[in-house]
Every structure is written in structure tokens, then in C-alpha cells.
Amino acid sequence: MKFRKTCSAVVFFIVAALRPPVAAADAGMYPMSELNRLDLAAAGLEVTAADIYNPDGTALVDGIVKLGGCTGAFVSDQGLILTNHHCAFRAIRDASDPEHDFLRDGFAAADFGAEFPAAGYTVRITESYRDVSAQVLAAVTGDMDPGRRTAAIEKRMKQLSLDYEAAHPGKRAEVSEMFPGESYVLFVYTFLKDVRLVYAPPRAIGNFGGEQDNWIWPRHAGDFSFMRAYTGPDGEPAAYSPDNVPYRPRKVLQVVRSGVGSGDPVFICGYPGRTYRQRSSFYLEHLARYTMPLTVDWYTWQIEHLEALGQGDRSRQLALASRIKQLHNTAKNYRGKLQGISRLDLITRKRAEEVRLQEFIAADPQRQRLYGHVLRDLEGYYRDLDREMPYEMWLRFLKRSPQALQVALTVWESAQERQKPEDERDTAYMDRNLDQTLQRLQVQAEHFDAGADSLLLAELLRRGGAFPRSHELEPLSRVLGPEGSAEAADMLAHLFKTTTLMDPQFLAAAMAMTPAQLRRLDEPFLNLAADLYPEYLRVKLEGKRRKGVLDPLRAALVDARRGFLGGRFIPDANGTLRFTYGHIEGYSPRDAVLYTPLTTVGGLLEKETGTPPYALPPRMRELVEARDFGPFADSDLGGVPVDILYSTDTTGGNSGSPVLDARGRVVGLNFDRSWEATINDFAWDHSYSRSIGVDIRYVLWVTWKFGGGVRLLDEMGVGLAD
To answer: Has residue 17 got a pLDDT over 90?
Structure first.
């Protein structure tokens, strides 16, 4: 059973029923079920809907995977996956040390046996889906308070997943919330847990231009890497073992060296994260006033101080590299979103639309009865949330930023959650996920930097002093002393000097213990986590209560907007498999500026300064200057194309998605959006929304000439002869 359509009435699968066929690039990350409603031929595509997704056979989507928080594609029959360098970044970092600096020098496995295990990485291949809205919502009764309503829905979602897995051993099932409070779909996955690093170019190629060029066009980044999925010798999913064998995918995407040109149609299938285009203006205002500015401020502070810690110390730089990269990416993305909200006056525009929506609602007594209160109640909800957000954001940073405290709270919460039945636990602590949770903690422990943690914790304690006394965390004051005092500094030093928490073997033992056993360890960070946990639990339960209030309002807003917008209504992305299409095309970001849609290796030399982030490896400069391009040069452009620009609708999670030509062949690899398109999560517009990918010709040329990867080209069936 693959992608079987079992309930055509569910909202998620009929939202496009009234939408007319679309011939040009359009906003929309379409569920696979909507493909038959799109005029793919008019969009210039030669593939049919059945070629892309086929409920009764093999199709392109069978070769596209969710790789951690990114997307990837099978490009050989031996489980070879093409994805982004930044998606493989942590695996490259994990394989590195000062003597074997694969971030700096690149990584190339000589053979299968030399491929490096990527701890914590998983691959998901979507197998099927079915609507389970009725089963989920049957758990809700009219007399439930909001918190109980949320808990009942979450429990039923987990029950359905566990029931499916019990009846179908070897499969992974998850229920995804499509429209909160309204529609739910059970997705079934093949879930592979043995993933290995195969090839990655040096960071100077994979992230050429660094943070200066991040989210900016023109780009010249070779943001690609190869990984490989493995199974047990019997072909079934298995944890890492030297005896495992390469996975044999049902579908392998064809990689071609012909590339693309300006105006060519392209499409993407991948796993975009979340978009928020159907949310209210009050939500957007809340993000713009609190969530994003507070995050940018704190992340910017961390970047500055963590980078300073690593100066002159390569071991420390490697330990902090993945954390700093993530901070940079989010901070710059949020700055782009904030600028876009201001530039487009987006909140005012949404308010004006909501005035028209309210008039549409008021024009019909039935609509007024069902939806007349929704916008008013949403405004009140976010006003209440605004008051709590600065404190709750600080509390969230306290839990997530210092790694020792994050790990300690995870271990303590795991012990608490494992006292519950499986279907009542948080997802990370369900039996099926505990191995991945432990792996994640052990990776953090292996790259732990006590100096960085101490710096972050001290700064967060200082910032916490700004909150009213009613919001102070008594355990922090009790354990660490008054903020800024000598006592607090001494206690911080003592914590980090005496902790045994950040030892992988200790963590493995601790994750199997009960709360009472953890207390008897008298481990300082675990003691602190135990004392802080009641406050985190209070906030978590309050969040569930809020969700129980918000979800019916969001469901009602979606219903009202669907009637108001008619065929123009498009569902938000939610991390599940989606389709989007467009063309290779530039755009004009401002007056008298026109961006063309392809860059070339010539631009590498124009940008190259000899110092990071514009410092090419000497060998790369030699190859470009020698014009040793083989069959990968574009005669019209005069060199190997590097990056491409196209009008698809993408967001976070689409990183690593294959860019496919009209015939469904891999011609690029999505990795970014333009600066103006950081606002895509809230609003897409053909005039400014562009995605950025690396041209497949650059991927192949770098792999071949720089990486010595002829064996990988042979494995993908890419010949070098004309």
C-alpha cells in the first residue's frame, strides 16, 4: 500500500478541488494527493502525476527521503544519497579532529568500508498515508477542558501509530496534524537508522561565501554531500553494524550532466518544514514583536562569544562549529523575515484581509454563528501570550543553550516520562525513540565545551535577573546563589568541575535509571535539573492548555478562510512530503537591479580574496584557471555553472531536495532561498520568492576533479565521455 487515498472527504485532500489548473509558478507546497488537480503539462513538465506519485506502483517520490531535518535523494541502487553539505555538516564535524580535519579538507571514503557512521542521522521514506481524523477526534468530548483535549488528541495519535507498527513490524508510523483540531493523517515510513558519510567537499567549497553570502544571491556555494543508507544483511532496517549492507531503494533518481538553462521548467519534491500563511495577523505580530527579536538578540550574543572562544584553537572550533553554524543560519533567517514583514507591511496587509474576512463572515448568519468570534478570540489569546513570552523565551534558552543543562533536563525528563504508559509519553521518550534520543545526547557529550557552557549559563542568569520576582526560578538562586555574586561564580565553576554528566557511558547508564536512582547519583547538573523540572513541567502543561484553546480557533479560522478564499486557499506545509514547481528565472530585488539565474566558476575567482569565507582551496583555483571542465561546462556561460535560481515555493526542510527537470531528472540540489524569500513562511510572491540550488554540473565536476570521485560518478551512471 503506497499513498492510498482512503478518505477523499478529508479537508487536507480536497482543499484544491475548486482550484483551477495552474500553468505558471504558483504559491503552494502541494500534498501528493493534489497532483492530479494541477496542469503539469501547462507548467512545462513532461512527467505526469503518476510519474511523480503512484499509489499502485513505483514513482519519483519513492527515491526521495527525509534525512534528519533535511531532504535527500537516492542516486544509486546502493543507497547513495545526495543531500546538502550543511545537512551533513554535523556528520563531517563528528568525523573530524585537528589531525583529520574533514571540515577543512573534505572527506572522501575510498570504499564502502571507509564510509563514516553518521550517529543520530536517520532516513525516512514515505510508504503510505491514510486519513485518521475521525479516530483522532473521537477521543475528544465536549466537556473536556483545553489541556485534557490536547492530551487526549496526542494520546490517540500515538495509539494509532503504535497499533499500526504492532501489526506491521519493521515499519514506522506517525500521525501528522494537518489542520489543528480538524484533520489528521497517518503516514507510514521505512525508517533506516544506519546512515554513513561518503563524500563531502571542503567547507571552503561547500560553504563558499560563509555567512556573508547566506540567504544572498548571487551565490557560489557547492552545498552538497553524499551519504549512504544501510540495512541489516536481511535487507531490514537495523542499527549500525559493520555487517550491514547498502540499502536497495525501490526508485533511483537519474542524475544527468546536461543541467538547466534560463526559463527551463523545474519541480521539487521534498519535506518542507512549517509555513504560517493561514495564521492570523495577531500570530504574525506576536512573532515579530517577541519570538524573532528575542531569538536574534540571544543568538547573536552567542555567536560573538562562542566564535571568540574558538580563536586560535582548532579543537575548540570543531567542537563549537555545528552549534555556531545553526545559530548563524537561524539569526540571519529571522533578520530577513523581520525585514520582509516590515518591507511588505505584512501585518497591515493581513489585518486588511481580516477586515474583509470578517465582513464575509457577517454577511451570512450561519457563518456569523460559527466564526464571528474567531478573530476577536485570537486577538485576546495572543495578547495574553505576549505577557508571558519574554520569560518563557528565556526559560527556553536556559534549557536549550547550555548543553550540560539541556542534557541533564533531557535525562531527568526521560526518567519521569518512562514512568508513564508508552502512549502518554512525549515522543522523544517513547521506547521506539529512546535510542535516537540517547545518541543525540552522546554526540553532544563528545563535543562538550565546559567553558562555552559556563559562559552561556552565566549570561542567561544575568538576563534572568530582569524578570519580576514572581518569575524567578528559586532553584537557580538556591543552587547558584544571587546572580552576579562571587558565590554564583564559584558555584558555576564547581558545577562544571565536578560534573560527570557529559560522559557517553555515564549517559547510557543514566538514561536507564528511575528518578530515585538519578537522585542517588548526587550528580550536580542532574540535581539542578530535578529542581528546575517542576517549573518546566508547569510551562509545558500550560502550553498544552493553550494548544487546546488555540486549535479550535485555528480550525475555525481555516474553515472561514477556505470559504472566503475559495480556489486560492492552499494548506500550510507541516513537515510531510510536498510538491512545488516553477522555472529557472531571475528577479529584480530593487530598482535598476536584475539578477540572472545562473552563476559560474568564474564568479568564484571574482569573489576569491584568499581569506575566509572567500578563500578557495589552492587546488580548486588551479582547476578553474586551467578550465579543466570536462563535459560539465556550459558553452553559453563559458564555464561550469555553480548555483541556480528558480521560482519554486520552498522553506526550511527543503534543504537537500533534488531539483528535477521537466522529465524528472536531477539537475540541481536545493539549499537556500534569496534574502527577499526568507519571508516565504508567511507570504509567497512570484516577484521576489526565489529558491537557490547548486547546479548538478558543479556537483559532478567537483566530485570528479577535486574529490577524485570517479567511482561515485560511475555508481550514479554518469559517464565522462562525450
So the answer is: no
Cα(485)–Cα(167) distance, integer angstroms: 59
Looking at the structure, tell me whether residues 290 and 405 fall in a common domain: yes
Taking the C-alpha atoms of residue 329 and residue 401, their distance in angstroms, rounded to an integer, is 16
Q: Per the structure block, which three cell numbers stand in for 337?
A: 523575515
For 317-344, write each residue's pLDDT tens digit.
999 999 999 999 999 999 999 999 999 9
Are 22 and 51 in contact by the 8 Å Cβ rule? The answer is no
Residue 143 in domain: no
**Residue 360 is assigned to a structural domain of this protein:** yes
Of the three residues 563, 584, 602, the one that is the final residue of a domain is: 563
pLDDT surpasses 60 at 23: no
**Contact between 407 and 445 (Cβ < 8 Å):** yes
Task: Give the chain's count of helices (H) and strands (E).
Answer: 26, 21
DSSP of 516-578: HHHHHHT-HHHHHHHHHHHHHHHHHHHHHHHHHHHHHHHHHHHHHHHHHHGGG--PPPBSS-E
Confidence class for position 22, pLDDT limits 50, 70, 90: very low
Q: Which of 76, 102, 78, 105 is nearest to 91 (CA)?
A: 102
Residue 307 CA neighbour count, 13 Å, CB half: 11
Q: What is the pLDDT of residues 637-656, one digit of tens each?
A: 999 999 999 999 999 999 99
178 within some domain: no
581 and 474 co-located in one domain:
no
CA–CA separation, 653 and 216 (whole Å): 18
Chain segment 665-674, per-residue pLDDT in tens: 999 999 999 9
Tell me the residue type at 438.
Answer: L
CA distance linking residue 201 with residue 410, whole number of Å: 34
542 & 510 share domain? yes
The answer to whether residues 237 and 659 touch, using CB atoms and an 8 Å cutoff, is: no
pLDDT in the model for residue 612: 95
SS3 of 362-378: the string is HCCHHHHHHHCCHHHHH
Q: Which domain holds residue 577?
A: 1-122+193-275+570-670+684-722
Are 670 and 657 in contact by the 8 Å Cβ rule? The answer is: yes
Residue 28 φ then ψ, to 5°: 150, 125
Cell (9 digits) for 173: 508510523
Please say if the pLDDT value at position 713 is more than 70. Answer: yes
- What's the rounded Cα separation, in Å, for the pair 1 and 493? 57
Q: State the Cα torsion 81-643-263-701 to the nearest 10°.
A: -60
- Which ranges of 186-313 does DSSP label H, i.e. alpha helix? 203-206, 210-213, 281-286, 292-310
CATH of the domain at 220: 2.40.10.120
Q: How far apart are CA 152 and CA 143, in angstroms?
A: 12
pLDDT at 6: 35
Residues in a beta bridge with 70 = 67
C-alpha cell at 653: 526542510
What per-residue confidence (pLDDT) applies to 568? 63
Alpha carbon 50 to its chain's center: 27
Residues 6+ apart with CB under 8 A from 521: 510, 513
Domain edge (last residue) among 563, 578, 596:
563
Which residue intervals of 595-709 are DSSP H helices? 601-607, 618-626, 696-701
Neighbour-count burial for 354-391, b at 16+ CB within 10 Å, e otherwise? beebbebbeeeeebeeebeebbebbeebbeebeeebeb
Do 594 and 700 belong to one domain? Answer: yes
Average pLDDT, integer, range 198-208 = 98
| Confidence grade of residue 20 (pLDDT, cut at 50, 70, 90) | very low
Indicate if 93 and 54 belong to the same structural domain: yes
pLDDT at position 37 is: 86
Our count of domains for the chain comes to 2
Residue at 719 is within a domain? yes
- State the Cα–Cα distance between residues 62 and 199, nearest whole angstrom: 23
Place of cell 532553584: 475
* DSSP symbol at 254: P
